[in-house]
Amino acid sequence: MGKIVVIGSINVDISTELNDLPQIGETIKGSNVSISPGGKGANQAVAAAKLGGDVMMVGMIGEDAFGADALANLNSHCIDVTNVWTASETTGLAMILRENGDNRIIVASGANNAWPVDLPLETIIANASILLLQNEIPFVVTEKAVNIANLYNVPILFDPAPVDHFPLSFLRKITYLTPNETEFKQLPEDLLQAETKAVLVTQAKHGVEIHDETGITHVPAFPVDTVDSTGAGDTFNGAFAVALASGKNVQGAVTFANQAAALSTTKIGAQKGMPKLNEIKD
Ligand code: RIB
Questions:
Q1: Where would a tag sit more exposed on the chain, N or C end, judged by fewer CB atoms within 10 A?
Q2: Count of domains observed in the chain
Q3: Which tens digit of pLDDT belongs to each residue from 20-29?
Q4: Ligand 1: which of 107, 180, 264, 268 to mutate, judged by most atoms within 8 Å of the beta carbon?
Q5: Where along the chain is ATP bound (predicted)?
Q6: Could you give phi then psi for residue 8, rounded to 5 degrees?
């Protein structure tokens, strides 16, 4: 299996369970606090590594204890962190409000916005088996990475979250696009052109719709008792990359990724419930 390269965000997630949202000026009580590693990029990297992928993480951390913890966490999953860099900013911070398994997230980018201009992206991407991207770092870095990947025929998996007004010319360079239902509605129509092989619309407990040149195929989700859906989409992306890199076709890879994503929601924290290969087999 070739190297899975993830370029993206690294955060610390601080989350709490709520029954209601506070009004302006109001203080309400949360419960079940969790402080855990997150960031869509780091989550994808950890999901892929836990499933046996050979993973490199490319990202930015701050000069603080959260950054050191994030780096130690990536290391603990045997992820190549040669290209995790430090900026004189705070480490990215996500404030997460959980409500009956669902979540609302506010991300303060911090170091995720402080990418140096001279990163050796070409060397990093040229030999990758697949490149994973999301939208929590400056778009200019993502765009540059996409252009390099196209140059070296490296397939690209792009999760357009948080969603933005992406140019159609950019989206058409993506091999696999993985919006959720809400994001999908905000993307331009006619995505399936040029390099794009498939658009995989993730629909939480309703599964995934594969839109490709054969039409639309629905792959059902696996029923589980969800306690926290944070990071389920990231798990889907990481697992999909591992499955593709190990030779599965798109539908087989989606089925595998659905299993991983479902299991990831059974524990609190984005990365805690991400399964290992034997847990999926079980
Ligand atoms: O997708 C979930 C992730 O989004 C969280 O881990 C949080 O850090 C935000 O980036």
A1: C
A2: 1
A3: 889 999 999 9
A4: 107
A5: 180, 233-234, 258
A6: 175, -160
- What one-letter code names the amino acid at 76? S
For residue 158, the enclosing domain spans 3-23+33-272
Measured distance CA(192)–CA(74) in Å, rounded: 34
How many CA atoms, within 13 angstroms, populate the side-chain half-sphere of residue 187? 26
What distance in Å separates the CA atoms of residue 239 and residue 236, rounded to the nearest whole number?
5
Q: What's the full length of the chain, in residues?
A: 282
Pocket test for ligand 1, best of 6, 105, 163 (most atoms within 8 A of CB): 105
Say how far apart CA 158 and CA 237 lie, in whole Å: 9
Instruction: Decide if pLDDT at 18 tops 80.
Output: yes
Cα separation, 241 vs 50, in Å, equals 12
Residue 238, phi then psi, degrees to nearest 5: -60, -45
Q: 177 - beta bridge partners? A: 158, 199
In this predicted model, what pLDDT tens digit does every residue of 146-173 receive, in sequence order? 999 999 999 999 999 999 999 999 999 9
DSSP H helices in 215-249: 232-245
Active-site annotation holds for 164: no
CATH number, residue 50: 3.40.1190.20
